[in-house]
Amino acid sequence: MKPRLIVSRQMPSSVGDRIAQEFDSPNPQGADISPDECLKLLEETQAPALMFTGSIKFTADYVAKLPASLKIAATCSVGYDHVDVAACKARGLIVTNTPKVLDECTADLSFLLMLGAARRAREYGVIMQDGWRRGIGMGEMLGVRVWGKTLGILGMGGIGRAMAARARGFGMKVVYCNRNRLPPELEQDATYYPTIEAMLPHCDMVSLHAPATAETKRIINATTIGLMKPGAILVNAARGALVDEDALVAALTSGHLAAAGLDVFDNEPAYDLRFRDIPSAFILPHMGSATHETRKAMGDCCIDNIHSVLSGNGPLTPLWT
Ligand code: 8YV
User: Fold this and answer.
1) Which of 23, 48, 207, 321 is the most buried (most CB within 10 A)?
2) Per DSSP, what are the bridge partners of residue 175?
3) Which residue has its alpha carbon closest to ligand 1 atom 3?
């Protein structure tokens, strides 16, 4: 008998096809279902497994409502700020995530954000949309060169290090801030700062790669933005919670920051529309991992975890051990 599985988010067909083959699922291709619909389906099917994403918040209240039949919840994301770990632990629910497989694509996207912000891709895109048809002066709409500049990375995990590798290839100097200093083979000549306050004054660009935790919440705020060089650029493909959006809007509007590249927002998908109206904000709708290869790898990671748990071998990438 194939195990039952509920999938709370639409999946790529490559993942859906595997689910259809290996599971008994009412929605193998996944569907964007609400938290209440998800609970209802879990209850009705008594499924032991769920594949979900940040669109369902596993708060303590929500976890308390999950049917006892549910044994494993595999979040199709590396971030798990939508999961109340203590509540899941107390309930004996196994929760897994998808580390590593999205490092390279998220770093690519972060680099795209940095280049797009630095080279004013959004504004030039608008000119092309409008038909161009007028010469652009040599001194008009100039961007910022990244070559030779210093990139500050907050959070030197897999994604941060993949971003650093790209920056080196573009002739940038890399500095970083992390809870712990990395060993030389991972640090690769990047300069370590133990605090963000110490790092920011040295950076021309700053890219965020830390998870959303109590420690990192609003770590970019009016005070820390004030420590950034005038004309610096902020990149965030991590989590919106890291940034005080009022402070960022103010810094972009005043011109203290030249630009920002943002893939994540405090409120998604109903993001703060002030960013829509600021031309120097190069904005994307949370799509760092959105490639065929990475979304397939994320789906496979969830499926492999579910099989492993249901066959009694334990999770492969658990949120805690
Ligand atoms: C999203 C992400 O999960 O992995 C993460 O933490 O934020 C992304 O990969 C994915 O886009 C689905 O919402």
Assistant:
1) 207
2) 152, 191
3) 77
What is the distance in A from the centroid of ligand 1 to the CA of 252? 26
Active site residue 286: yes
Catalogue all structural domains in the chain, each as residue range(s) with its CATH number: 5-101+292-310 (3.40.50.720), 103-283 (3.40.50.720)
Instruction: State the catalytic residue, choosing from 22, 37, 123, 268.
Output: 268
Report pLDDT for 93.
98
pLDDT in tens, 249-293: 999 999 999 999 999 999 999 999 999 999 999 999 999 999 999
Catalytic (active site) residue 268: yes
Q: Give the pLDDT score at 31.
A: 85
Edge-to-edge order in the sheet of strand 173-177: 191-193, 173-177, 150-154, 205-208, 232-236, 257-262, 281-283
Give pLDDT, residue 30: 84
Structure tokens given for 312: 């009694």
